[in-house]
Write a structure and sequence with these properties.
Shape: globular
Structural class: mainly beta
Largest sheet: 6 strands, antiparallel
Oligomer: single chain
Number of domains: 1
Distance between the termini: 25 Å
Helix content: 10-25%
Number of strands: 11
Strand content: over 45%
């Protein structure tokens, strides 16, 4: 789980915030609904895993506009989950990749990334409506994996494509 130099530099700072819109929403006092996507970046036309879907929509467009070295992005998994200020929510993105997310109030979140059960990265960042946060680790070779987290979009097509994760997203002990 290692990424090429360009994303490694960006992720060394802890987060890449990508503006996807102009609106900034107010934080919910009780709970916030978020979407996480595990993404595979590559210059290959196909992912090494046939079950991965080519990333499309506004997120793919934004990633392609960034100065990243990959031409293609594949969605490995997508989860919709709810966070609050009381406890971390644990989201299993794959057999090897898990995140814990907590609402810190005032649109701020903490995202902890784990790879193979070991801490990889941590981000404490504002996450208002219309923005996305990307967090990842390093990868050997010409491919990279990372996770994007963003507030759930209220557009009907976003809800249709998203997979709810009641069973996988569980509060983790507060840390």
């Amino acid at each position: 789980m290692h990424s090429p130099l360009i994303i490694r530099r960006a992720l060394r700072l802890g987060v890449v915030a990508i503006a996807l819109g102009v609106g900034v929403g107010a934080a919910s006092a009780a709970e916030r609904k978020l979407e996480a996507r595990l993404i595979w970046g590559t210059n290959d036309e196909k992912s090494p895993e046939p079950s991965h879907k080519l990333l499309e929509g506004d997120l793919a467009k934004k990633l392609n506009e960034m100065p990243l070295k990959w031409k293609n992005y594949f969605e490995v998994d997508r989860k919709i989950f709810t966070i609050n200020e009381k406890a971390y929510t644990n989201i299993v993105m794959s057999k090897k990749c898990t995140i814990e997310v907590k609402d810190k109030g005032n649109n701020n979140v903490t995202v902890k990334l784990y790879g193979e059960g070991k801490p990889v990265n941590r981000v404490d960042k504002p996450l208002p409506k219309g923005e996305v946060l990307a967090i990842g680790g390093e990868d050997k070779g010409n491919n990279a994996w990372f996770i994007t987290v963003r507030p759930v979009n209220d557009k009907p097509d976003a809800k249709k494509d998203a997979k709810p994760t009641n069973a996988a997203a569980k509060p983790a002990p507060a840390k």
